[in-house]
Amino acid sequence: MKTEHKAWELRLYVAGKTAKSITALNNLKKYCEEHLKGQYKIEVIDLLVNPQLAEGDQILAIPTLVRKVPEPIRKIIGDLSNEEKVLVGLNIIPAN
Amino acid sequence: MGFHHHMSTDKRNIKAKKSITALPKTPTGIKGLDEITEGGLPTGRPTLLCGDAGCGKTLMSVEFIMRGATEFNEPGVFMAFEEKAEELADNVASLGFDLRKLQDEKKIRVDHVHIDRSEIEETGEYDLEGLFVRLGYAIDSIGAKRVVLDTIENLFSGLDNQAVLRAEVRRLFHFLKDKGVTAIITGERGAGRLTRQGLEEYVSDCVILLDHRIINQISTRRLRVVKYRGTVHGTNEYPFLINRNGISVLPITTLKLNTEASTERVSSGIPALDGMLGGKGFYKGSSVLVSGTAGTGKTSIAAYFAAAACERKEKCLYFAFEESPAQICRNIRSIGIDLQQYVDNGRLKFHASRPTIYGLEMHLVIMHDLIREFKPDVVVLDPITNLITIGSVSEVKSMLIRMIDFLQEQEITVMFTALSLNTIINDQTDEGISSLVDAWLLVRDIEFNGERNRGMYIMKSRGMRHSNQVREFVITDKGIDLVDVYLGPGGVLTGSAREAQQIEEKTGAALRDHAVSRKDREILRKRSVLEAKISSLQSEFESAEEELNKIYLEEELKKQITEKTREEITRRRRGNS
């Protein structure tokens, strides 16, 4: 992840290292490697460390995945256990 | 640690219960609400504020936060789940607060929670820790003591997993308690229950319900404390008003009959009327009803009363329900009183409104508000009968009881005028209302001899000697006066009949005087005639007596002579023999 600009900029909001957060991050990494290899950037934000960042992205649920780029912004909440839903939600594959 | 803490709290609670002071309370600063709840909302606990859309729950919670920040030095967090930033700012500005300034001063923090369902996909397990983080951060960043969540139920339409939401909302209430903030959580009224999502299940301390009804095309807002643990609260519905100063709840006074009764007197402004009232007028802080048929001068009496207060350098608040202030001033000027000067020098304030503009209770709330603001010594309500057009007699009566109680508490003397038609309904009104007031003046038309005059009766005046007499009530361009009526053999006479009677009386007296002197002379004459007769009779008697005496003497003389002669003869006969 040395290149500054990626086609996919993803941000995962967590609050501490909870089971749900860890599951979500692992799931996300797996899907990205499978479908967006080399084109993505994942930023993990721990709200317990940076609580002031929750308001900006309108975070309520934890974990929340935010697709910052490409626009429009999309959000997927939950531990991302359903691969198809995540891919559709991120517009990686079209909905059928 | 927590255990010990609870122990000591429990002990304190037990102690507190003994000294009657239960749950600590946080004043809202909202007019009337703190009186109803006997001190405010439970400190450090969430209160549920529910009601239909547009019932005023957002405004009430905004006011709670604003007053906390400005009046009680309690910073507050407003978490808005539905209103847009501008709308909230407008709401705050409408109450006369500067949201931006308060935010800059870190007294208020606003967080808009925006949930766009179309933006969000759900997959797998989640919780609402993000919301907790945000709220916790907002509270900690300004040291907030107050929190509003408006309306948290919007979460339920924004997210799918209802089970998670329920669990998290429950956790949120605990979270707020742990934070020790005094919170208001608003909820929209649901079918058959207080809130759509049953939030009332999570709140055990205090639940307040707001209601907005349209009755007879008149909007009425009401507030009810559904539940308040550890506090005796009325289950009554309290009307409230939203105006430029925020929310005003009207407490229904608990009819504490312990207000101190003043012995101070207040002039009615009409010396002759004061005269009828033991020479001094009404008691300060008492209530006076002036009732009468149309055109009997009720407003004139009220205007005199108002003017007298202003002359004493007191303040008078005049509620006009029939005429405009300009009309009243003009009409009263024609009988010699210039009310405008008092309006100009700020002692007299008119508040004119058509009764039909609001519901009864709104009127009451508005009156309360104005009285609290203007702080008058004397209040006039002219006429209260117009209020009956918007409420039943019993409603008006209960409103007046509340009004009178409120005024009595403040030692404000009040004069109501009431129009009585000669119908049964209004007789009832008179009776109903008159039992509430301390003094009742009745002005009645007395129709007699082809003219209409006014008679004033004091039907009652508690606690003072008052005249039981009818006075004729005269209005001229010089003002009002009460004239002693003439009590003739035919009853009370007024107007020209009185004048005629008075003239007749005067003539009568003159005639009588005249008659008396004629009779005196007659007697004198009769006496002298009689005396003359007596003296003539006497002389007649004397002459008769003389005559009788003469005869008697002659007889006596004759007898003597005869006897002498007989003796002579006898002697002579003896000597001869």
Automatic annotation (TrEMBL), chain A:
Gene3D superfamilies in UniProt: Glutaredoxin (3.40.30.10)
Biological processes, Gene Ontology terms: rhythmic process
CDD domains attached to this UniProt entry: KaiB_like
Superkingdom of origin: Bacteria
KaiB domain span: 11-92
Name of a matching Pfam family: KaiB
Name of the featured protein: Circadian clock protein KaiB
Source species: Mucilaginibacter hurinus
Organism placement in taxonomy: Bacteria, Pseudomonadati, Bacteroidota, Sphingobacteriia, Sphingobacteriales
